[in-house]
Amino acid sequence: MKTDTFRPGLILLTLCTLLQAGTDKDGFSKSAMPQDDAAPWIGRVGLSYRAAFNVSADFSDLGGYASPNLPGAPGRIQGAPGTVVRSYDDGFIGIDESGNANGRTTYWGYDSDSQVSGNNVLMRNSGSPGTARSNDVDDEPLNGLELSYQQPLGRGRNLRWGLEGALNWMNLDFDDRRSLSGDIVTTTHAFALDGVLPPVAPPTYVGPVEGPGAPQLSDTAVNAGTSTQPGAAAITGSRSLEGNLYGMRVGPFLEYEITPRVSLDLAAGLVVGLIDSGFSHTDTTSLGGPGSQTVSADSSETEWLCGAYVRGQVNVKVYENISAFGGVEFNNLGTFDQRAGNAKAELDLNGAVILILGVGAAF
Prior knowledge:
This protein has one helix at about 1-20; strands at about 45-55, 55-60, 85-90, 90-95, 105, 110, 115, 120-125, 130-135, 140-155, 160-175, 180-190, 205, 215-220, 220-255, 260-285, 290-320, 320-330, 335-340, 345-350, 350-360. By secondary structure, the chain is mainly beta.
């Protein structure tokens, strides 16, 4: 009888011991509890260097030659005797002492008898519209710094998620000294000789205000056409866009622990930027015979931009709560335009690729 009673009691005591060993102090099975290998931390601060690529500037509406001449519109122009009422690259029309009686004048001039075409003298006026461009100017990489903070909000098996925010700065420096070309646009007016034998002009001819006897020329301008020589104007000079881009980004992040020392961060969110920039340019446009002109202008501007970012980052623990990290960020802040005089600078911040290298401290 004692033996039969003892055996069930021994079995019951053994089962109770095994169950107690397989549960925690709160009575839950250890084998059934989820395992969380991610070390707990309240927050993490990071300081990083940023190198931006795929950011460029375009400079447009460059050059330009505004002719100092006053050719006027087709037809007749009145004026006082002794005055020049039409001027060209290669000649002029003035008012003689008769007031250009019968629409003809002795007070006129031209540079070469090669301007005589049939019964007319041709006079030309040239200019350049100032539409040259210099595209895709870059000075990569653009350098900057960032201070970031991550606040975890939840944890799972090898996972941590939360919100992050950052303040950053980037230096903007775009310098362009390319030689460019512009168009030359030439307007030609014809003036009738009406059978008068034109004087030989080696190298120029200037008629007298006081006639009579001097060759007369019609003072009525007839439009003989406009021609364009693409790329015939030579443009030299420099253009510069310099300043600072201050940024702020905020969004959710997800961290996956690959090993106890290595983790992967993924994040996306909103980015806001403030540009404080200065734009200056000096361009000299040469047309050859008519001469050259230099145009300079500068301006400063501040503007807010808004966009989005996506970031991937690898963290490596190097000492207790200290980690080194590196990653890449795709940043889109749109475009920024600035004018100085007639010229325009356009900064393209669409699709910026930013390489990140820094250190972080968790606490």
